[in-house]
Amino acid sequence: MFVIDSLSAGGAERVACMLVNHWVQADDQVCMVTIDVSERDFYELDSRVRRIALGLSRESKNWREFLANNLQRIRRLRGLICTLKPEVIVSFLDATNVLVLLAATGSGVAVIVSERIDPRSHSTAKVVRILRRLLYPRARALVVQTQEVSNWARRVVKPTAVYVIPNPVSFTVHHRKVCETKRSYTILAMGRLEPQKGFDLLLEAFSRCCQGHLEWNLRIIGEGSHRERLLRLAEQLGIGDRVRLDRVITEPATALRDADLFVLSSRYEGFPNALLEAMAAGLPVISFDCPSGPREIIRHGRNGILVPPEDVGALAQAMDRLMGTEHERSELAAGAADVTERFGFDRVMPMWRELLRKAAN
Predict the structure, then answer these.
(1) Regions of the chain with pLDDT less than 70
(2) What mean pLDDT value characterizes the chain?
(3) Does residue 81 sit in the same domain as residue 200?
(4) Is residue 256 within 8 Å of 262, Cβ to Cβ?
(5) Are residues 160 and 304 in the same domain?
(6) pTM
(7) What is residue 180's predicted lDDT score, i.e. its pLDDT?
(8) Buried b vs exposed e over 153-168: b needs ≥16 C-beta within 10 Å?
(9) How many CB atoms are located within 10 Å of the residue 101 CB?
(10) For residue 2, what pLDDT is reported?
(11) If you ran DSSP here, which 8-state letter would residue 195 be given?
């Protein structure tokens, strides 16, 4: 059994589908349960995955509705647990983790909860933070994605219950020739159009360095509530004609193949899939050294560039240098593909397999 809030176009949802498809292809019986409705599924599931959508993601207008809605979610989840009798439940996302642990109380079923973003930086409702502290110790394991976040996790549950499992990258390496003369070049960024991803900082940095590189443009791929705000900001900065905001795509391989430089401008992260996939595709990358993830993926100066968190000036300088130096872009791109060895399926999935085995026993 695998529980998540929804299967929308997010990094956690993408990883969830990768895991589930991998497990069912290994002849495991997997049931994917979402609190949301199935019509919003964005990533494709293997046809052998049993799919259940509860359709219980409605908003609460007050505390009375909040309690009623969550009690209904807990009852439905508990009913599924009693019916399906899974050996292990894997749950993604903090609020969903809390609901699953409440629903599984007294069932004897092993629950693995997973944090997919840095909980020290991510804003969460106070009631969820309190319940997380109270309920996470009931979980058989707490999975985080970086050593940095594991320090937080060990203050929430016993250290032996903490497992650090990074996101897997499934991309195959594209051997690309960076040092080639082109008429135009593209800086690519991908992610939700929300403040966490820092695209406002990226626009500001691009505006500071783009005038010396008229052949370069910026493409941002994503969905979110800040689309119009970012478009207005690009116009205010005088770069509206050199910036594209495209809708999210299910398979980013084509966009990565057409790009020449990838930039991660997040204020905080979990373990950024977009950065992993860009590096696996053989792109030179620049990233803020934000909490958490980039520092454990990028080896500064060897397979990418790290700049101080939210330092627009430093980001602009790094972008300016790489846009003007084909040789450095080529060297970084050549080193970037090592992520397919460090975070490939052959390395990451056995970590999950061993954890599932331990939990089931």
Answers:
(1) 9, 38-40, 171-181
(2) 91
(3) no
(4) yes
(5) no
(6) 0.89
(7) 53
(8) beebbeeebbbbbbbb
(9) 23
(10) 85
(11) G
Give the per-residue pLDDT at 179.
47
The C-alpha atoms of residue 16 and residue 112 are separated, in whole angstroms, by: 13
Q: Would you state the pLDDT for residue 176?
A: 54
What is the chain's length?
Answer: 361
**Cβ 340 vs Cβ 303: under 8 Å:** no
Task: Express each pLDDT in 29-44 by its tens digit.
Answer: 999 998 887 656 778 8
> In terms of domains, do 109 and 131 share one?
yes
Q: Report pLDDT for 77.
A: 95
The number of distinct structural domains making up the chain is 2
List the structure tokens of 49.
Answer: 């995955």
Distance CA 283, CA 260 (A): 6
| Residue numbers of the domain that contains 158 | 2-168+344-360
The amino acid occupying position 309 is P
| Residues 328 and 242 both lie in one domain | yes
- CB neighbourhood size of 13 (10 A): 23
Tokens 């497992």 -> residue:
163
- Residue 199 exposed, middle or buried by CB count within 10 Å (0-12, 13-18, 19+): buried
Task: Report yes or no on 175 lying in a domain.
Answer: no
Closest CA to 13 of 281, 35, 89, 26: 35
Residue 148 neighbours by CB under 8 Å, 6+ apart? 118, 291, 292, 295, 296
Residue type, 324: G
Task: Give me the long-range contacts of 299-304 (CB less than 8 A, separation at least 24).
Answer: 299/335, 302/332, 302/335, 303/279, 303/332, 303/335, 303/336, 303/338, 303/339, 304/279, 304/332, 304/335, 304/336
The enclosing domain of 86 has a CATH number of 3.40.50.2000
Which of 355, 351, 349 is CA-nearest to residue 112? 355
- Do 127 and 46 belong to one domain? yes
Return the amino acid letter for 13. E
Strands lying side by side in the sheet with 31-34: 50-53, 31-34, 2-4, 88-92, 110-114, 141-144, 162-164
